[in-house]
Design a protein that fits this description.
Layout (H helix, E strand, L loop, with lengths): L2 H9 L2 E10 L5 E10 L7 H10 L3 H15 L5 E4 L24 E6 L4 H6 L1 H9 L3 E7 L7 H6 L3 E4 L12 H15 L3 E4 L5 H10 L3 E2 L27
Parallel strand pairs: 2-3, 3-4, 4-5, 5-6, 6-7, 7-8
Antiparallel strand pairs: 1-2, 1-8
Length: 243
């Protein structure tokens, strides 16, 4: 690994924050998304960190280190772990000793919908190998900008994460609600559970529950934290949240 990145990992300056994936029926924690974080001034945001790894051709090694950290820090729930497209071109992901093969619960590898589906078709052998080990697939960012619903048909993911662009400002009376409800129904028919991302208000939570989405994620439910956090008690699940 590029030495500055390797040193930052060794010092603990690159670490994992966890954000709950919430079961919208019970209000309990279904799993956690493992989010890369950095205390290095040059890589304050995850985008800067990932860009540095890609530029120095060590995203595969960094991805492996992040997976090890994520799994070591949360042994109690399923984990959603982001996978950068360049990791398909490296050998790290399919190594038999990768941490994803040791987690006692389900692992969902998130691949972004913003990458052309032809890339994932090209990497089908890698996807087949990791899914053969029991790893599940989640399509991330569905609805962010250009959206290709063929991802769901072609890749048969176990989960689909709706981008916050589809969730921000949603109300039960809106046309956006009808659109999201239709997408949820389509995903369900194709065998994919739906996670609605970016829930930041009680109104959005109530509207998302009414769409039939199985899971939710966002600051209203819980902010990311270095220790896997609980769901906020004020999120108001139960009969009241379904009114």
């Amino acid at each position: 690994m590029h030495k500055p990145l390797s040193d930052a990992v060794s010092r603990g300056d690159i670490y994992i924050a966890y954000q709950p994936i919430v079961d919208l029926t019970t209000g309990g924690t279904f799993g956690y998304e493992a989010l890369a974080r950095s205390a290095v001034p040059a890589w304050r945001g995850p985008l800067e960190l990932i860009a540095a790894a890609v530029d120095t051709h060590c995203m595969g090694e960094l991805g492996r280190a992040l997976r090890q950290m994520a799994i070591a820090g949360c042994q109690t729930h399923p984990l959603f772990i982001n996978l950068h497209p360049s990791e398909f071109d490296a050998e790290w992901l399919v190594r038999p000793d990768d941490a994803i093969t040791t987690h006692p619960h389900d692992i969902y590898l998130e691949i972004t919908e913003s990458v052309p589906i032809s890339h994932y078709r090209f990497c089908r052998s890698v996807l087949t190998e990791i899914r053969g080990k029991g790893i599940k697939l989640a399509v991330d960012d569905l609805g962010a900008g250009y959206s290709n619903l063929k991802y769901i048909a072609d890749l048969s993911p176990e989960a689909v994460k709706l981008d916050r662009e589809l969730i921000t400002g949603i109300t039960r009376e809106s046309r956006l609600h009808k659109l999201v409800t239709a997408i949820v129904r389509l995903c369900s028919d194709l065998g994919a559970a739906v996670v609605a991302e970016g829930i930041e208000t009680d109104v959005e939570l109530r509207a998302v529950i009414a769409t039939g989405a199985q899971y939710g994620q966002g600051y209203f439910l819980a902010r990311p934290a270095a220790e896997p956090p609980s769901v906020n008690s004020y999120a108001g699940f139960g009969k009241a949240s379904r009114l």
